[in-house]
Design brief:
heterodimer; A: alpha+beta; Helicase, Ruva Protein, domain 3; Chorismate lyase; 3-stranded antiparallel β-sheet; 6 helices; 3 strands; B: alpha+beta; 6-stranded antiparallel β-sheet; 21 helices; globular; disordered C terminus
């Protein structure tokens, strides 16, 4: 395993741990339970708003529900008991998020499963693409994987007239079999290894090349 | 007047159908006759736009002339409605908004058909696809949701009026922007499908649609954010995003559209992801239609949804047919999309784009899943449940933070391969800056270990800072190189840098804007709110501000009656402003509406700006005293600033590159040329 792979793996592990900490970190027992619980419930009037955010003018439910919540907190009921009480009174839609019980677990699992599977898939794809051999050039030259290129130079450039192929005609918007200027070239790195192959076509009536002045 | 509108709609349907059918037939032939037929199809498409424009013009004129013989005008307008809102009547109801959709699609099609000489055959294919979509909307308008239906029986003296929630200046801009975004994605989709059908070589369809896509994305971005700003300024609950299904519907195509904007660069630069890009633009188009389906079918309950109607089934079928058609052409022509996927290094721009696409799609899937889960629950468990902010805050935030991390790191990665050393070198300054922000937050009292929301807020702040410092360092580093060579100052050099590659540096500015938006959002866990019955001289203390009730007053206008409070705001014993939270009662509709007032404390808090947000909630019937609710929302103005920066960045990216295109073709040489030669 190379150093970069190790550091990548270590970074991934750290990210996963941080993510898990973030996800598993729960809200502590605090004096703002009213605020927290009130934001976990919906107003039952049908306005579609969170209980403590309902500003529905003339709402007949929100004040009543808030008072019930205050009464439950005064009785020192647990969060679960309070939520269950509201579900019994107003139905399951009063909770603003799926519970983590029964079938509803799947609601919470799916996004993280999609993320995990997606990351695994992309890592697999990246690795398989990374391991692919370099494509062979027409004359059998294999371009090796390169690092950062310091510089390069021309090995050969051929300039000739040719008749446009179907592809050339399409891209240059010319009729087929129109004479075009063809420039074919190979560049090499400083050690002489071929790095690029260019096959360029110019519409002869639209370009002018000037060498020297 | 309604007859003219009805006739225009029928004419538009006829012309669009001809444009579709004749255009389709013409695509099969190569002879002169087919070309002439194709030309008539193109012209019919242009004429169809004229007919839809006429229909829309008739509806707007009917709104201005209070023609209540048209049911739509009766239900959505009234005599005293201010003129700008009469214009907005066009898109404020089901039938009108469908007509508006058709109008915008016709407008896009009009521009496309005028520019057909760019590539006649590809444009002809795209034109047929657009005509097919247009036929669907015009069939809806003519047979399912007719905007010119006649009012039965005696005409009432006045209309029902526009929904009070829509009587707000942004509502005149928000729907057109959102629709321009939704509908605009039809254009790149039409080109993609056209290119797929004709097995078009190369990536020309991407080059042609690049600007369309960026403009469309910009419109959708503006639409989404204006919707959030409208919710913040009008709904009066103190927030801007409620994860309502209709809000989600606008976010989903935005996410896939953003992924598409990034992944097309892989195809342009490296010839990779050809299949992926095809499906991504289809998904974006499909999700745009799905959003409309959600809004109009009533299948998922939402505070925004139009009344439940039968047109949901039309949209359902359209979604199925479009999926089948696209899948069919993909299956038979997929060999054409083969591309050579090869990566030279794991740490490269290519990898970052792959992960960027993954995270955007996971975010989209999460929202789609959450939006549909109530329906899934109903099918499986026999009862529906609610999926709102407490759910999304947990499931979407980790993905969003990873995406933000990638936004920071991505620009530092080179195509093909990036050495760890260069990454470390380029990352050092942004990393130190970001960590300094995190440490400063802890020093100033944020305790990320106490609550998950504080942890997320701290992480978001660090990563946003990382994005901002990365963008700055990219501009400065590139600018320094040019300044050194060109003997110009750094600012001029950075301007030159942008002008040489507008898309890249415009994109960085968009990233900068995204980071500002995130900074605005991360203030949410620190929001405060106080509710109190207030008599004259009563006080509310919230954060560093003290609110003193000066008095209450009333006003009567032809459109509505209103009552409001006059609240003086003090900071450190000094009065900084006076606010007027208001409650209106609209006469025509008989509906009440709260009008919150917002004061951003830019002068007092500078970068740590907070919105003081006041709502006049009404009068306590028991005590007879008015109730005022005050929210203190830190950093929210950064969201709207971020939007402006994002739009500015998109405009920068749309500017053509200024660099001269140099074509140097050297003469044949016997010996290898000096280093640096080559085409």
């Amino acid at each position: 395993m190379t150093g970069s792979q190790k550091s990548l793996r270590r970074s991934t592990q750290v990210a996963v741990v941080l993510l898990a900490v973030a996800v598993l970190m729960g809200a502590g027992d605090s004096s703002d339970r009213f605020d927290k619980l009130g934001h976990r419930m919906m107003c039952a009037c049908g306005c579609g708003q969170i209980l403590l955010e309902c500003n529905h003018v003339g709402c007949t439910y929100s004040d009543k529900m808030r008072n019930e919540l205050i009464a439950s907190l005064d009785r020192a009921d647990s969060d679960d008991l309070i939520m269950q009480g509201f579900v019994q009174t107003y139905g399951p839609t009063v909770i603003a998020a799926p519970t983590v019980t029964g079938f509803n677990r799947i609601a919470w699992i799916m996004p993280f499963a999609a993320l995990a599977l997606g990351i695994a898939f992309v890592v697999m794809v990246v690795r398989s693409w990374k391991n692919k051999p370099a494509p062979a050039l027409a004359d059998g030259i294999i371009i090796p994987p390169t690092g950062e290129l310091d510089d390069y130079k021309r090995k050969v450039t051929r300039i000739l007239a040719a008749l446009s192929s179907e592809d050339d005609a399409l891209h240059l918007r010319l009729p087929r079999l129109t004479p075009v200027l063809a420039v074919d070239s190979i560049d090499v790195d400083l050690e002489g290894t071929p790095i690029t192959l260019h096959e360029t076509r110019f519409a002869g009536d639209r370009v002018q090349f000037v060498l020297g002045e | 007047m309604s007859y003219i509108g009805s006739f225009a709609l029928l004419l538009a349907l006829g012309l669009s159908s001809y444009s579709f059918l004749a255009g389709l037939v013409a695509l099969f032939g190569q002879d002169a006759g087919s070309m002439r037929l194709g030309e008539t199809a193109r012209r019919a498409g242009i004429a169809a736009f004229g007919a839809v424009l006429l229909a829309a013009g008739v509806l707007v004129t009917a709104a201005f002339s209070d023609d209540f013989s048209i049911t739509y005008i009766l239900h959505h307008s009234n005599r005293d409605l201010p003129a700008p809102y009469k214009f907005a009547v066009l898109w404020s109801g089901q039938e009108g908004s469908l007509l508006f959709w058709s109008l915008l699609l016709g407008g896009y099609g009009f521009v496309l058909r005028l520019r057909y000489k760019t590539d006649q055959r590809l444009f002809a294919h795209a034109s047929v696809v657009i005509a097919a979509v247009q036929v669907f909307f015009l069939m809806l308008l003519n047979f399912a949701a007719h905007p010119f239906a006649i009012t039965q029986g005696a005409l009432p003296p006045d209309g029902n009026g526009l929904n009070p929630l829509l009587q707000y200046p942004e509502m005149v801009i928000h729907p057109p922007m959102l629709y321009l975004g939704y509908i605009g994605f039809t254009i790149p989709f039409a080109f993609a499908l056209g290119a797929l059908i004709m097995k078009y070589p190369g990536d020309k369809w991407i080059h042609i649609t690049r600007r369309w896509t960026m403009v469309t994305w910009c419109f959708l971005t503006i639409g989404v954010f204006l919707g959030a700003h409208w919710a913040y300024s009008v709904l009066g609950w103190g927030g801007y995003w409620g994860w309502d299904p209709v809000e989600n519907a606008s976010l989903m195509p935005w996410l896939t559209g953003t992924a598409f904007l990034h992944s097309v660069m892989m195809q342009e630069k490296r010839g990779m992801l050809k299949v992926w890009n095809m499906w991504l633009i289809f998904a974006t188009f499909w999700l745009s239609i799905l959003g409309t389906f959600l809004t109009r079918s009533g299948i998922i309950s939402s505070v925004h949804a139009f009344a439940q109607s039968t047109i949901g089934a039309w949209f359902g079928w359209f979604l199925i047919i479009s999926l089948v058609v696209f899948t069919y052409f993909f299956v038979i022509n997929r060999s054409h999309l083969k591309s050579e996927h090869r990566l030279e290094a794991l740490v490269s721009r290519e990898s970052s784009f792959l992960f960027n696409n993954l995270l955007l799609l996971v975010a989209c899937f999460t929202i789609l899943w959450g939006t549909w889960y109530p329906k899934i629950s109903e099918l499986v468990q026999g009862h529906t449940i609610t999926v709102r902010a407490p759910y999304y805050n947990v499931v979407i935030v980790p993905t969003a933070l990873l995406l933000l991390l990638l936004t920071a790191v991505g620009p530092l990665l080179a195509w093909r391969k990036t050495s760890i050393e260069s990454l470390k070198r380029n990352f050092l300054f942004p990393f130190i800056g970001a960590m300094a922000i995190g440490i400063a937050m802890v020093i100033f009292g944020v305790r990320p270990w106490e609550d998950s929301s504080y942890f997320y807020a701290t992480m978001a702040a660090i990563l946003s800072a990382l994005v901002i410092f990365t963008v700055i360092s990219e501009f400065v580093r590139g600018g320094r190189v040019i300044a050194g060579k060109g003997q110009m100052n750094l600012l001029a050099a950075m301007l030159h840098l942008w002008h040489r590659n507008t898309r890249r540096y415009g994109g960085y500015v968009v990233h900068f804007g995204v980071a500002l938006v995130v900074i605005g959002i991360l203030g949410t866990p620190f929001n405060k709110e106080v509710e109190k019955e207030m008599g004259f001289g009563d006080k509310i203390n919230i954060g560093p501000s003290t609110l003193v009730c000066q008095s209450y007053t009333q006003e009567d206008t032809p459109n509505y009656g209103s009552e409001w409070a006059i609240m003086n705001v003090f900071r450190g014993g000094k009065q900084v402003t006076t606010m007027y939270p208001e409650r209106r009662f609209y006469k025509s509709s008989g509906q009440p509406q709260t009008i919150p007032r917002i004061y951003p404390s830019v002068k007092e808090d500078m970068l740590l700006v907070k919105d003081l947000y006041l709502v006049y909630e009404g009068i306590n019937e028991t005590t007879g005293r008015p109730i005022i609710k005050a929210h203190l929302n830190p950093l929210v103005p950064w969201i709207w600033t971020g939007l402006i920066v994002m739009v500015f960045g998109t405009i920068l990216a749309l500017v053509p590159n200024a660099a001269t295109v140099r074509v140097s073709v050297p003469a044949p040489v016997r010996e290898p040329a000096h280093a640096g030669a080559g085409d």
